[in-house]
Design goal:
The complex is a heterodimer of chains A (352) and B (304).
Chain A: H1 10-17, H2 48-73, H3 79-103, H4 122-146, H5 152-181, H6 186-189, H7 192-218, H8 221-252, H9 256-259, H10 263-288, H11 294-323, H12 326-332, H13 337-341
Helix pairs in contact in A: 2-3, 2-5, 2-7, 2-11, 3-4, 3-7, 4-5, 5-7, 7-8, 7-11, 8-10, 10-11
Chain B: H1 22-26, E1 37-42, H2 51-60, E2 86-92, E3 111-117, H3 125-129, E4 135-137, E5 143-145, H4 156-159, E6 166-167, E7 174-175, H5 181-185, H6 191-195, E8 201-205, H7 206-222, E9 229-231, E10 248-252, H8 272-297
Parallel strand pairs in B: 1-10
Antiparallel strand pairs in B: 1-8, 2-3, 4-5, 6-7, 9-10
The chains are: A mainly alpha (352), B alpha+beta (304).
């Protein structure tokens, strides 16, 4: 369908030739005309409330998944992981909706989200994921709070709620990535798979880091070792996906918003250092030491938690910036111009 | 389906001072619920008078926007917004280095003018994104925001592939062109089309407009304007990536990007499934890792 563009050839051709640099699969950004550099799409109005929400949603969802798995594994010493995980998820279940409602421009109408279900809208799907997660995580946390030797009902409530809570928790870690990708913002729309996978890794890494900290503070420090290992796995996966994303943005010619000298680009680089490099270094160092190092583990956990928030903030800001860059959008919405413009290919604009 | 039962049944008895089915007189089309209506904006006829912008503002009671000089061209409106639902863009073609070209092809050689508007997409990204149902498809196949439902979540704003819909800072709701939903219900042609002095903006039934556009394109080709092409009709640029067609479509004479239009836009919701699948697969893998690590970490403990 894309080879039908009947664009005028004569005067445009020379300007359009620059749009393609046939060097090893990488593509130069769109070089063609714009309308006085005016944005071609509108940026989202999403700021700190929403990126903090995606962070909290990921952290809470991940904590619930870990708590549920720990409960199903059924070893007594993991009881404190289950407890902390349920409280953390419960806290997120309260904070998440509050952040989102605060971001609405007509917040008194937040209930209108629940008047329909729209399967084409990740925002609508997410509303129901969040509602389910809040309900089930709230029940699990309440059950956990009241559980005791004399209160079997409380344990049963927590037990009944934990599976739906973990399943909706998986949705919480992921849907925010799908929500950003299902827009016309070039930076988000260009990588639907990578973006939500990166969000999922960040969610599990931050949840494991938070629980590792809480185990050292209030639980069984031996559990911190397993949780640190999980944080390492998730951070390694996140770092790999992040560099895959950078390479893919370059390949698509959309790396401008993340590589040009801007606050968002600098923040994105910093998020990589703090969220990926630093914690992996800490854990690497700790691995070289004869005994477990508590300060290194704590430093790595704090670093992962800070890096995760920075990453969300950077991706939101860079995304909004990419929407303001008409060349990024025209690059993203380019027709199959390799076929149209590469030397030796048939001339563009074969009329139907 | 000549006339549907219900509210438009008594259209022939118009209220005092109104002409019944006025659109038949002004646009040559009778407005019947259940049929598809839209705009065909022929940019080769546009003279840049901005009567459409003014008529739209007046009819819809929209406040002024950005009262300053843009410093670019004659376009101080700059973009569609919550308070601007028609926007005339001005593209001055002065050659590549600011020199006036010595020879130019006929028809708007030095100036391109286009009255931009909400495209009322056949598959609309904003409508698909709206979680409250405030954005809906009307009985005239147009896309409208219900102001009493919208809660200002703002998701339609980045969803729109054409940068049309915007949240109003005044009332915190999303606003855009309604294709004069109220006028259509009253049998009136939309304000911008009625005000257009050159018929650059044509209102009518979609199928008729497609025929007009094809005829006009052929006519222009015969006159030597070989660059003329339709943007937004099914199978043309703009109607790509699942969008299928724009109920407000255009006849252009330069690349879409020159008019600030994307050459091959796509429907945002097409990216939802891959995103969910990849994210959930990642989480499943990490959940497996969690199970393994928690089991091996506590393997010396007895089971509960």
């Amino acid at each position: 369908m894309n080879n039908i563009l009947p664009f005028p050839r004569s005067r445009q051709a020379s300007r359009m030739q620059g749009a393609v640099a046939p060097r090893s699969g990488a593509v130069q950004a769109y070089q063609g005309p714009t309308y006085y550099q005016q944005p071609a799409v509108k940026p989202s109005g999403y700021g700190w409330l929403v990126w903090t929400y995606t962070y909290v949603a990921g952290l809470a969802g991940g904590a619930q998944i870990i708590a549920t798995i720990a409960d199903l594994v059924g070893r007594p010493r993991l009881a404190s992981v289950v407890r902390s995980g349920r409280y953390l998820a419960g806290g997120g279940a309260v904070a998440g909706p509050a952040l989102l409602i605060a971001d609405l421009h007509t917040p008194q109408r937040f209930m209108n989200m629940l008047r329909i279900f729209r399967r084409t809208s990740p925002m609508s799907i997410g509303t129901y994921i969040l509602s389910g997660f809040s309900l089930s995580s709230g029940l699990a946390a309440i059950g956990q709070f009241f559980a005791g030797p004399r209160r079997a009902w409380a344990r049963r409530v927590a037990k009944a709620a934990e599976i739906p809570a973990a399943l909706t928790g998986a949705g919480m870690t992921t849907y925010t990535g799908a929500l950003l990708s299902s827009t016309s913002t070039p930076l988000w729309a260009a990588q639907p798979r990578l973006l939500s996978a990166r969000f999922a890794c960040s969610a599990m890494a931050t949840a494991a880091a938070a629980l590792s900290l809480s185990e050292r503070a209030w639980g069984d420090p031996r559990n911190s070792a397993s949780l640190d290992q999980l944080a390492i796995v998730a951070t390694l996966a996140g770092a790999a996906l992040s560099s895959a994303a950078s390479a893919d943005y370059q390949r698509q010619g959309l790396d401008g918003a993340l590589s040009d000298d801007s606050a968002a680009a600098r923040q994105h680089a910093l998020a990589g250092h703090i969220g990926h490099t630093l914690p992996l270094l800490c854990h690497g160092l700790a691995g070289l030491m004869p005994a477990r190092s508590r300060p290194l583990s704590v430093a790595a956990s704090l670093s992962i938690l800070a890096g995760g928030l920075l990453m969300r903030s950077a991706l939101f800001r860079a995304g909004n910036e990419s929407a303001r860059r008409p060349r990024d959008y025209f690059q993203f919405t380019r027709p199959d111009y390799e076929a149209m413009l590469l030397p030796g290919s048939p001339a563009p604009g074969g009329r139907r | 389906m000549e006339s549907m039962p219900g509210m438009n049944e008594d259209r022939d008895q118009a209220p005092d001072g109104m002409i019944a089915n006025e659109s038949e007189l002004t646009a040559g089309v009778r407005i019947v619920p259940g049929r598809r209506y839209g705009f065909f904006t022929d940019t080769t006829r546009c003279i840049g008078c901005k009567a459409c912008e003014v008529a739209c503002k007046e009819w819809n009671g929209l406040p002024a926007d950005r009262l300053s000089l843009s410093g670019m061209s004659y376009d101080n409106t700059r973009a569609l917004s919550a308070n601007t639902w028609r926007h005339v863009s001005f593209i001055e073609k002065m050659g590549d280095h600011g020199e006036r070209p010595a020879d130019m092809p006929p028809y708007q050689s030095h100036w391109l003018m286009m009255s931009d508007v909400c495209k009322h997409c056949a598959n609309a990204g904003c409508l698909e994104a709206c979680p409250t149902g405030a954005l809906f498809r009307t009985e005239f196949d147009t896309v409208v925001v219900q102001q009493d439902i919208c809660n200002g979540c703002g998701y339609c704003v980045p969803a729109c592939p054409f940068g049309v819909v915007e949240l109003s800072a005044i009332d915190g709701k999303a606003h855009k062109c309604t294709l004069c939903y109220d006028r259509l219900k009253g049998g009136l042609e939309p304000a911008c089309a009625k005000a257009c002095p050159t018929d650059s903006i044509q209102f009518g039934e979609i199928d008729d407009l497609h025929r007009h556009a094809a005829r006009r394109e052929a006519e222009l080709h015969d006159m030597g304007v070989s660059e003329a092409y339709v943007y937004g009709a099914p199978g043309t640029p703009g109607a790509t990536g699942g969008i299928d067609g724009l109920n407000a479509f255009f006849l252009l004479t330069d690349r879409p990007e020159v008019y600030n239009l994307p050459a091959a836009p796509s429907l945002p919701s097409t990216r939802m499934r891959p995103a969910f699948l990849a994210g959930l697969a990642t989480i499943a893998g990490l959940a497996l890792a969690t199970t393994g690590l928690l089991l091996s970490g506590s393997r010396k403990d007895p089971p509960q």
